[in-house]
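Budget justification aside, the reviewers requested a transparent look at the raw inputs and outputs of the sequence design task funded under Objective 1. We therefore reproduce one unedited record. The lines immediately below are the structure tokens for a 474-residue chain.
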């Protein structure tokens, strides 16, 4: 059995344990996982025993702090950080309607201009930003694979390796949702222009890539980009591979009305119906967005215990629409959150928008939950354990013995949270949390953020500035 390299005992004012914030508790953790979660007296005894055995244990009282498991971000395209703030005006001077598809053109343009070093720099900056926002694992839906002309890099995993390096330097755990992209869309079998960067030569090439990454011990998910980018035949192959290998299965689904129309045209089925026909709806499946779903699809998603990677900060930015969150939740879907286009990194902001968008639509308040306890608990589960489940990392998202030592402390004297009680804190976090309330972040018991400062922050800022200078043509 491996011996732990790091031992850390923490005594916060409040600790999130089994669905509530409790006082008088402590936690002993190592780099290999959480060893004890109990009353302060019990944890102190355990610390004393270990010290007697000659082990070094670092201990900290976290005064005016709450300790939480790290948030889990289930949907990210790291490179899209490069277009933040640069797509918020009509690029055509107002001569045509701006929507998801016109935004996509600008995003494609950025994809062709980033070389491998740039991809790593942009990813590092956005991953550092995530960790500072309390996120300790990201599902990176990675679809930049090849050179702009579609030829392979000398090492076909070049860009994957860049993403992994960026994650390591930012201290974030990553599930690589290495995406398969095949075609432009219905009746357009060839990739168009910049899509050559995304497209693999064949589905066999894709599966070999996954095998190679898995042999390296990299956590992967089977990730067809969308029903528009992959044929039915290849979707079936990927569903089958994910099931046989017990891997997470992620796919963009029902983000845009046009995608529904095209799917009906090609298959006579809506996207979620098509996935149901392929037996893709199951507990290891995550649908990204699921905004435009009808009642039958909602029932099928709920019945199968499917996860939704909901990205309301991006969905509102792109004008995608409003996810029917209350209906999906009631049907049994597992909500998780993603920062997707990186226009904003704040997972509780995504959580609150689930409810807020429904309020604006229905002209009513408090539409998702009946009471304070279930609202607070369920929202925090969406930010933590549900994300862990979606990414196939069930040992994360909880402060319990045997779970991973990924957690963060929240400053209870931060102006956005001051005055919160143990009972109110879950909903204070969901509705009023600001990233600057995150004080310290530990990943595998290593302190990555201290007092709001990330150890790789300066370097990340320098590297990002270099990329933006290049994009500006400087
Ligand atoms: Zn996406």
């Amino acid at each position: 059995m491996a011996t732990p390299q790091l031992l850390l005992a923490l005594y916060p004012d409040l600790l999130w344990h089994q669905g509530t914030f409790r006082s008088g508790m402590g936690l002993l953790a190592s780099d290999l996982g959480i060893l004890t979660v109990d009353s302060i007296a019990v944890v102190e005894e355990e610390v004393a025993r270990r010290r007697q055995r000659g082990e070094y244990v670092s201990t900290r009282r976290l005064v005016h702090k709450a300790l939480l498991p790290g948030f889990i971000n289930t949907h990210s395209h790291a490179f899209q950080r490069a277009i933040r703030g640069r797509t918020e005006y009509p690029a055509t001077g107002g001569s045509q309607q701006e929507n998801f598809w016109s935004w996509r053109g600008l995003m494609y343009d950025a994809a062709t201009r980033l070389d491998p070093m740039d991809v790593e720099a942009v990813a590092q900056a956005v991953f550092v930003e995530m960790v500072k926002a309390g996120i300790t694992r990201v599902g990176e839906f990675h679809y930049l694979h090849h050179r702009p002309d579609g030829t392979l890099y000398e090492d076909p995993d070049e860009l994957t390796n860049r993403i992994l390096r960026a994650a390591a330097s930012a201290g974030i755990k990553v599930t690589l949702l290495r995406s398969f992209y095949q075609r432009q869309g219905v009746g357009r079998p060839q990739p168009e222009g910049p899509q050559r960067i995304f497209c693999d030569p064949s589905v066999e090439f894709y599966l070999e890539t996954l095998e190679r990454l898995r042999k390296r011990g990299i956590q992967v998910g089977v990730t067809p980009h969308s029903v528009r980018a992959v044929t039915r035949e290849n979707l079936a192959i990927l569903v089958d591979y994910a099931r046989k290998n017990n891997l997470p299965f992620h796919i963009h689904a029902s983000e845009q009305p046009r995608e529904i129309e095209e799917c009906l045209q090609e298959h006579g089925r809506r996207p979620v119906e098509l996935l149901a026909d392929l037996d893709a709806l199951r507990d290891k499946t995550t649908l990204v967005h699921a905004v435009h779903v009808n009642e039958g699809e909602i029932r099928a998603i709920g019945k199968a215990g499917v996860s939704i990677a909901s990205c309301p900060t991006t969905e509102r930015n792109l004008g995608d629409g409003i996810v029917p969150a209350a209906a999906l939740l009631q049907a049994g879907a597992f909500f998780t959150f993603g920062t997707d286009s990186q226009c904003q990194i704040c997972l509780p902001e995504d959580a609150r928008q689930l409810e807020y968008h429904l309020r604006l639509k229905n002209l009513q308040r408090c539409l998702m939950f009946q009471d304070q306890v279930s609202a607070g608990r369920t929202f925090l589960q969406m930010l933590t354990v549900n994300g862990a489940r979606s990414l196939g990392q069930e040992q994360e998202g909880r402060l319990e013995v045997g779970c991973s030592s990924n957690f963060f402390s929240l400053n209870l004297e931060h102006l956005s949270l001051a005055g919160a009680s143990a009972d109110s804190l879950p909903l204070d976090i969901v509705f009023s949390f600001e990233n600057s309330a995150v004080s310290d972040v530990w990943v595998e018991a290593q302190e990555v953020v201290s007092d709001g400062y990330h150890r790789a922050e300066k370097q990340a800022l320098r590297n990002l500035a270099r990329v933006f200078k290049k994009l500006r043509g400087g």
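Residues 7-70+398-457 form a domain with the Urease, subunit C; domain 1 fold (CATH 2.30.40.10). The chain has two domains: 7-70+398-457, 76-368. Computational costs for records of this kind are itemized in the attached budget.
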